[in-house]
Q: What sequence folds into this?
């Protein structure tokens, strides 16, 4: 089944929405599997239906038959398709559970970095871990409606909401996770494509819901390191301290030493 999902990573295949995370193709593969299975049985059912209409249509001199459903020959038209459909249902359940487990339950250990995502009416606040890749330290970087991550790195995110129910959605990553007030929900992602992508709120959260959009910047290692260095508060504090010490007057009695 992994080879089925890998089809959605082929360069020759152009999905409607770009595949830009490590598990985006798994989501697409599951959706296509459901579409193919349901579409196949829809066509079969419609084909049999129209065949019955043509075969048993009213004709002069033919009397209608009363079918009570007790004849085994007639019952097979129900039981056999029913068992086949159940078999495909089990297939969909097994595949969907594997995808769900991979994305929602099997949280990667020892991620490369952390980020906190906070939804409020009507903006996203992103708390980036600084160079130490740990949250709630002095070098954390805060931005509004702009998330910066490094390509191919595994991130843990903490999702929170300050007021009402929001939903953190990054279509190219196939992420859609509700943000619930009073809870901190942990998830993960691994970007696989460099670029600038949309972040949206997928849950109606008030009259400003339609403008609650943001951008995620997926950068290469050099570009991301430069952004972190430029925006780290600790660097700014250190520079201010150095400038302040250089400008401070020397203590009395020390001028000639």
A:
């Amino acid at each position: 089944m992994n080879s089925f999902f890998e089809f959605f990573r082929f360069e020759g295949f152009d999905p409607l929405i770009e595949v830009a995370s490590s598990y985006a193709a798994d989501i697409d593969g599951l959706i296509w599997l459901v579409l193919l299975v349901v579409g196949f049985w829809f066509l079969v059912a419609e084909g049999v239906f129209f065949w019955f209409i043509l075969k048993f249509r009213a004709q002069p001199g033919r009397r209608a038959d009363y079918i009570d459903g007790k004849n085994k020959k007639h019952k097979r038209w129900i039981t056999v398709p029913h068992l086949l459909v159940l078999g495909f249902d089990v297939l969909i359940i097994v595949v969907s559970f594997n995808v769900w487990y991979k994305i929602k339950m099997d949280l990667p250990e020892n991620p490369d970095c952390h980020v906190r995502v906070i939804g409020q009416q009507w903006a996203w606040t992103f708390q980036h871990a600084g160079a130490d890749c740990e949250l709630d330290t002095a070098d954390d970087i805060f931005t509004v409606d702009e998330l910066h991550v490094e390509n191919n790195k595994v991130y843990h995110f903490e999702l929170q909401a300050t007021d009402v129910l929001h939903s953190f959605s990054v279509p190219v990553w196939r992420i859609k996770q509700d943000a619930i007030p009073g809870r901190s929900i942990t998830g993960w992602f691994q970007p696989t494509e460099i670029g600038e992508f949309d972040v949206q709120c997928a849950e109606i959260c008030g009259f400003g819901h339609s403008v609650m959009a943001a951008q995620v910047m997926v950068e290469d290692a050099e570009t991301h390191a430069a952004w972190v260095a430029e925006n780290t508060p600790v660097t700014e504090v250190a520079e201010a301290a150095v400038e302040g010490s250089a400008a401070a007057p020397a203590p009395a009695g020390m001028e000639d030493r």
